[in-house]
Design goal:
By secondary structure, the chain is of the alpha/beta class. The chain contains ten helices and nine strands. The strands form three sheets. The chain has a four-stranded antiparallel β-sheet with strand order 7-1-8-9. The chain has a three-stranded parallel β-sheet with strand order 4-3-5, sandwiched between helices. A two-stranded antiparallel sheet has the order 2-6. α3 packs across α9.
């Protein structure tokens, strides 16, 4: 009998890709994960500290494999959200603005503020920042470096709240750890939801908020199973597969 889509996905987790290339600690962590099991949200976040073996404070990542075709614009799932507990990193924020808005940005804690002078600096190869915010009147000038910013994921976008005259709120959101999510070509969304040191409760709260938003963002044109696979992991650890049905129930969408 042919395997179902879910059976194929679960069986593929019996052995991690490139098993021979992984170190002893990774393999010991992998043995703690039941390969044929899809864990509840509570189980997965309780198990995470047991399989996270690195000595440094790893980032915690979540990957959603969605039943969408990103080639179609109406099936692109994209947005930004400030997670309840942030992500454990303070972003370096650049603001492109003039006059009073430039003064407001400086007062709000922007790391760098400028206009055409800053655009010229970026054109020359300067990228000592993580996020860019621009006022709407600066976007014509910003478009000149769009080909430089786009591939790096730095192009300001009104849908993500990074093209706005409310620069104070935009800077605050970015400093708090506003995360952007977007489906890749394969239909997968990767998002950092915090640091290992946050502990299970805070990480789970961050995940719950993010999952709820992604579930609500299901495109009307998406057919079949929307949440196909969800994987939780730390920077160095093997992934833990979550039960999509439990995630839907958690979000009240089952």
């Amino acid at each position: 009998m042919a395997k179902t889509e879910n059976q194929t996905d679960v069986v593929s987790r019996k052995k991690p890709a490139g098993m021979g290339r992984h170190g002893k600690k990774y393999l010991e962590s992998f043995k703690k994960i039941e390969p044929l099991k899809r864990y509840t949200v509570a189980e997965a976040f309780s198990l995470l500290p047991e399989v996270a073996y690195a000595k440094f404070d790893e980032s915690v990542d979540i990957a959603f494999n969605l039943g969408v075709d990103p080639k179609h614009a109406d099936q692109m799932v994209r947005g930004a959200i400030v997670l309840p507990h942030g992500i454990g990193k303070t972003a370096r924020v650049v603001v492109l603005a003039k006059g009073e808005k430039a003064k407001e940005a400086s007062a709000a804690g922007a790391d760098h503020v400028g206009a055409e002078d800053l655009i010229e600096k970026i054109s020359g190869g300067w990228f000592d920042f993580d996020k860019m915010i621009a006022t709407p009147d600066m976007m014509v000038a910003v478009s000149k470096i769009g080909k430089i910013l786009g591939p790096r994921g730095l192009m300001p976008n009104p849908k993500l709240g990074t093209v706005t005259f409310d620069v104070t709120k935009a800077i605050k959101d970015q400093k708090l750890g506003k995360v952007e999510y977007r489906t890749e070509k394969t239909g997968i969304i990767h998002v950092i939801i915090g640091k290992k040191s946050f502990g299970s409760d805070k990480l789970r709260e961050n995940f719950s908020v993010l999952a709820g938003i992604i579930i609500k963002s299901k495109p009307p044109t998406s057919k079949g199973t929307y949440l196909k696979n969800i994987t939780l992991s730390c920077t160095m650890s093997p992934g833990i597969a979550l039960d999509p049905a439990d995630v839907l129930a958690m979000a009240g969408a089952a």
